[in-house]
Structures are given as structure tokens and as C-alpha cells.
Amino acid sequence: PSRSLADRILKAGLAVLLAHLCLKLAGFLIKNLVPNTFGLAVSDVFTVVYDTVLGTAFFVGEQCLGPAYLPIFTTAREQHGEARAWHYTSVLFNLQFVVLLVIITLLVVYPVPIIGAFTQWDPPSVMLQKADGQTLNGELLDIDDDGYHVRVNGSDVTVRHSELSTPKPAAEEIDQKKKDLLKRRERRELAWQMLPYIAPGLLGMSLASLTYVLLNGYKEFFFPAFGDAVLKFSVLGGAALGAVAGKGDWRLVAGGA
User: Fold this and answer.
1) What are the phi and psi torsion angles at 131 (to 5°)?
2) Strands (E), 79-213
3) Residue pair 53/118 in contact by the 8 Å Cβ criterion
4) How many CB atoms lie within 10 A of CB 210?
5) Helix 111-118 with 82-109: angle, nearest 10 deg
6) Tell me: the pLDDT tens digits for 206-220?
7) 238 exposed, middle or buried (CB, 10 Å; 0-12, 13-18, 19+)?
8) Which of 5, 36, 143, 157 has its CA 20 to 30 A from that of 56?
């Protein structure tokens, strides 16, 4: 009996190890394929939207739901039978489905404030001291040889370098600030477009995690561990399709998520 138990533990450990190796392989391929095919901007935005925004919503539910529900399911199945355990699962599944629809709707309808909450890609704050003593506080939209282009209380204004009490920045400093502002704007606007494409994937991710919990209750460990790898390979498939047939269209990567 002890040897049989040891064999089962070893078999389960090898299965989980194999699943995680597949997950690592898929992650490695994605990290190389996406930036080399679609560019650093798409890679950066995809990482933030998929891993940070969607990942936060997913892991909060998974880390709370899994540990809490598995003992309930196991106890109900052992003491009251399969029917009662699956009745509880049906109730939880439907409730989770409704909550996910609400969250996905918010992600699709309000990408601008959500991206702003998770990133630092919004225009940076700037305080300009004018020669006449007036102080302007706003968001820096752009800078060039003429001056600063700033949004103050919802209005876009241009403050010339000659109007300020401080000397005009060096050309290298102006160029560096322009590059930083362009990088922020490019990623910010791309994230606004990408989030509605990726958000529906939260439904499948979260509902699939519930099935992983149930499989663990039946002492099936490979498929729950392999589930994350399947998601990664789905993203990888979208990236490959976008590279070959989509001519670098990032929407195929987002659709794979």
C-alpha cells in the first residue's frame, strides 16, 4: 500500500511537472515571438493588459474561489452524494458567470480610466512658472522648440519658452522628453484599443479555473496544471496567425487571449 501511494504521488508530480514545462515553453515562445513580430509597443501593451489588468481580475477570483470552494465540494460529495455537490457547483457557476459579465462589460466600456489606474502612461504632470509670476499646473502633452503644450483644466494651451522664468531646455532634453511623451501616448492609445479585445477572454479563463478546482477534487492533477499552458498556446497561435496571415495585426494576438 505504501509503495502504491508513493507511485501515485510520483505519477501526479511528474504530470504536474510536465504541464508546467509546457507552460514555461509557451511563455518563452510568446516572449520572443510577439516583440519580434509586432514590435515593442504591442509587446509592452499586451503584457500590461493581459498579465496585469486581466491577470489581476483573474487571480483575485481564482485565489479566493479555489481554496474556498474545493473543501465545500469535496465535503458535499462525500457526505451528500454527487448530485448535491454538483448542485452547489451549478449555483456557483451561474453566479460567477453573472459577475464576470459585469466585470467584462466594465473593461470594455471604460478602458480609459482602467488603463490609467494600472499604468503610468497618462500625460505627466508639469508645473510651469511664468515670468510674470503666474504658475500653471497641468498635463504635459508635448514639447518642442516653441514651448510646452499643456492641458490645464481641460483646455489645451501653449506656453512659449520665452514666457517662462526658467531658461529654455537644451535641444537634447527637449528631444528626450518628446520621445518619452510619444512612447506614453502610443502605448496608452493602443491599450485603450486592445483591452476591449482581450477582456472577453476573462470569461473563459475564470470559468475554466472552476473546472480545475473540480478536477483537483477528483484527484486529477495534470489537466488543471496544463490548463494555463493551453491558454498560453492559444495566445501563441494567435501571434503566429497574425505574423503569417495577418501581416502583423495585433488583434489576432489579442483574440488568442
Assistant:
1) -65, -25
2) 125-129, 135-143, 147-152, 155-160
3) yes
4) 20
5) 100
6) 877 777 777 777 777
7) buried
8) 36
